[in-house]
Amino acid sequence: MRLYNTLTRRVEDLPPPPGPVRMYFCGPTVYQRAHIGNARPFVLGMWLRAWLRERGYDAILVHNITDVNDKIYEAAPSASAELAEKATAWYLEDTADLGLGLPELMPKATESIPQIVRFIEELIERDVAYAVDGDVYFRVASDPGYGRLSGQRPDQVEEQEPNPRKEDPRDFALWKAGKPGEDTWWDAPWGRGRPGWHIECSAMAEDAFGPVFEIHGGGLDLVFPHHENELAQSNALGHPFARIWTHNGMLSFAGEKMSKSLGNDVSIRNVLDTWGREVILLFFMTAHWRKPIDFDDDALAQAKAQVEGFRNVFRRESEKAGDWADFRRALDDDFNTPEALAVLHGWRDHDLLRRALGLFGLASLAEADVAPADVVELAEARRAARTDGDFARADRLRDEIAALGWDVRDTPGGFDLYRR
RNA sequence: GGCGCCUUGGCCGAGUGGUUAGGCACAGGUCUGCAAAACCUGGUACACCGGUUCGACUCCGGUAGGCGCCUCCA
Questions:
Q1: pLDDT tens track for A213-238
Q2: Are both A217 and A121 inside the same structural domain?
Q3: Domain end call among A366, A392, A407
C-alpha cells in the first residue's frame, strides 16, 4: 500500500501490516452547517480506514472538532458555546448520514484544554514560546526546519497587519487572551483566554496517539500555516509527529457551474437531501483524492447514472466476472479510486461487487427494492391489460406507476418493479 | 512578490516513452406490443511552441490559461 506524502513529495510505502496505522484527520470548525467540501477529508479518512483494514492493518481514525475559535465568536456573539454545541451535533448527524460509520474518536478542542495548556507550558519551558500580555506565541525562528512541509519560505510569507506583541511577524499564537464579547474562556498560567487553532490539533493528535503516528490528513488548504505549525510545535518538543501527510484536493464551486439544484446551500445536509448519500460517495470516487473536483449538477448527475448502473448489475443474474487483484492494485497504488471504479464497472459477480462497494459505504446498491402493495396492484393490472392486448391501458398504468416513483420492467414471466 | 498544483475526445476522468482506460451522454442495431434493462456497433483525445529520442500525450524548457495556499477556510 502506497500513499503520496506531502512532506516528502513522493508516493511512499506504508509499513507492512498489521501496522498499526494511526490516522488523524483535521475536522471542521463548527460555526455553521458543514458544507460538502468538509465531507471530503471525512470520507477519505473513513475509506482509507476501511481499505487498510481490508488489507490487514490495524487502522484507527481520529477526527477532531474545532469548537472554539474566532469564526465561532463572530458567528454568535456572546453565544458561541451554544452555536458550537449545535453545529457539532449537526456535523455528527450529517457525517453519520453518509453511512460510513464514525471515527474511533472525535475529540473536541474545548474538552482538551488541560492537554493544550500542558503542551504550551512545555513549549515555554523549552524557550520556543513566549507569553506577552496574556497571549502566547510560538517562536518560529527557533525551528530551523520550519517550512519543510509546505515549502513556504518564512521570509517570503506575506505581511499581515503588524502585531506589536510578536517578537517576529512570523510567530503564531498558541494562546490568545480573552477579548470583550468572547463568552468562552479558560484560565491558564499566563492568563484567561483560549487556545490558538494550531496547538489544538497537535495536542489532540498526541493525546490520542502519543508523539508519533502514521498519517495526518486534511484539506490542501491546511498545509500552510495550520499543518506547518502543528509540525513545528510537536517537533519543538522532540516529537516526530506524523510520518505521512495526506492532503485532499479542494471542491470548486465555480460560478455558473455552481449547482442549480442546490443553489447556494452546498451543506452536506442539503446535498444529502437532494441527491442522496450514494450519489455523493460515488461522486467522490470519480476523482483521485489529491485532485480538485468541480462540484456541479452535471457531475452529480453523472455520478447518479453510475449508481444506477451498479444497481442494475444486482438486478440481473450474478456472473463470474471480476478479479479482486485488479481492484486491490488500483487502491494499493495511492488509493486510486477512479481506477478502482473503472475495474468495478467490469464486474458482474454480485458477491465480489458487494464486497468492494461495501468498503466505500455502497453495499446498499445491492439491496433489492420492495414495492408497496398499491404499486404491485397497478403492475398486476398492467400485466392483465397487456395480456388482453389493451396496450393503451397498459401504458396509462405504467405512467401511474411512474408517478408513484417506480419503474416497471417486463420480464418473460411477468414484471419487476424498481424505485426510480 | 513567494510556495505548489493542474490543462486528456460532447462532459467527467485514470494512465503509460511505442499496446483498448473506464464512466456519462449521443447515434445505429438486437430484444420488446412500445418501453426499460442487457448486449453489439460507432467517434481514435491528450492546451500551445520548441527540445531530447528510432519513437512523446507520457521526459526537459518556454508560452498561455485555470486553481490552491501565503497566520486561524476541509
A1: 999 999 999 998 999 999 999 999 99
A2: yes
A3: A366
How far apart (Å, rounded) are the C-alpha atoms in residues A124 and A126? 5
Number of domains in chain A: 3
A379 CA to B27 C1', in Å? 32
The answer on A398 and A282 residing in a single domain is no
Instruction: Judge whether A170 and A154 are in contact, CB under 8 Å.
Output: yes
CA distance A219 to A222: 6
pLDDT for position A170 = 86
Q: Which nucleotide is nearest to A337 (CA to C1')?
A: B14
- Give the CA-trace dihedral at A221, A223, A229, A232, to 10 degrees: 180
pLDDT digit string (tens) for A335-381? Answer: 999 999 999 999 999 999 999 999 999 999 999 889 999 999 999 99
- In chain B, which nucleotides are within 7 Å of a protein Cβ? 1-6, 11-15, 21-25, 32-38, 67-74
Q: What is the ipTM of this complex?
A: 0.92
The answer on A136 and A179 residing in a single domain is yes
Q: Mean pLDDT across the stretch A134-142?
A: 92
Distance A315 CA to B16 C1' (A): 36
Domain shared by A272 and A124, yes or no: no
* A236-269 pLDDT, tens digit each: 999 999 999 999 999 988 654 556 667 778 899 9
Q: Which of A342, A366, A390 is the last residue of a domain?
A: A366
Task: Give me the domain span that covers residue A398.
Answer: 373-419
Closest nucleotide to A69 by C1' from CA: B72
Please write the tens of the pLDDT for every residue from A97-106. Answer: 999 999 999 9
For the beta carbon of residue A370, count every other beta carbon within 10 angstroms.
9
Q: Which residue has the cell 502506497?
A: A2
Nearest residue (Cα to C1') for B69? A221
Same domain? A263 vs A216: no
The CATH number of whichever domain residue A111 belongs to comes to: 3.40.50.620
CB A108 within 8 A of CB A64: yes
How many angstroms separate the CA of A349 from the C1' of B51? 50
Is there a single domain that holds both residue A176 and residue A315? no
Closest CA to the C1' of B1: that residue is A156
The pLDDT value recorded for residue A258 is: 58
Contact yes or no for A75/A83 (Cβ under 8 A): yes
